[in-house]
């Protein structure tokens, strides 16, 4: 976490009256962070950065990425009692949000089997890097971090130009390190995109049976091994197994960051 990011989060949480908190004895204290529900622990590195900012010492009791049961102590904190109380909510917010994403990602990855599970750019503005890292901690692929990560040709592009024109323009502008992905909404468009040299084909908002037909047609045409196939759009954790069975390589879900529940952690002073 960059110092400027950390200070922004601290200012937001403490406000202008950061010293105006209920009085506590000027003593050192020990505290523990406890998971109140089953989860994949995430946000530990961010928690340590926050604790260090407040002059506190944190000790992880479980490695990041480990699944724990409700009631598990996951971190110990030592230092001035007042500093612990100032850092408390920010630490818990980071761990709660990131652990929720990591937990949902781990669950979806288990349902997908050998098919890679990826996130999307449906993230919280200003918090994307942390949400993407939480996906990786949970065993998922963070996908694109921003528009420059790859060249994506979407349906709105194809309303303004032909697929041939779009791919030609993409090749002119793209670095040799960037892949070109084409979003399709039908089987015939998938074959056309593959023949025109797309690196990745995204089956967007298509039913599993339609995608399966597209994968099979690409195989019959000798095009399947030329492209990475991705299923996206309207996929939920409950439908991941159906999409995983279609033969695609990647399933991307906005739900990993959009719908992940927060994990409930508590900080308990231990005297």
What does this structure look like?
The chain is of the alpha/beta class. The protein folds into two domains: 3-108 and 260-270, Quinolinate phosphoribosyl transferase, N-terminal domain (Aldehyde Oxidoreductase, domain 3, Alpha-Beta Complex), CATH 3.90.1170.20; 111-258, Aldolase class I (TIM Barrel), CATH 3.20.20. The protein has ten helices and twelve strands. Strands 6-11-10-9-8-7 form a six-stranded parallel beta sheet. Strands 3-5-1-12 form a four-stranded antiparallel beta sheet, covered by helices on one side. Strands 2-4 form a two-stranded antiparallel ribbon. Strand 10 (228-232), helix 9 (240-244) and strand 11 form a beta-alpha-beta unit. It is elongated. It starts with a helix and ends with a strand. The mean pLDDT is 91.
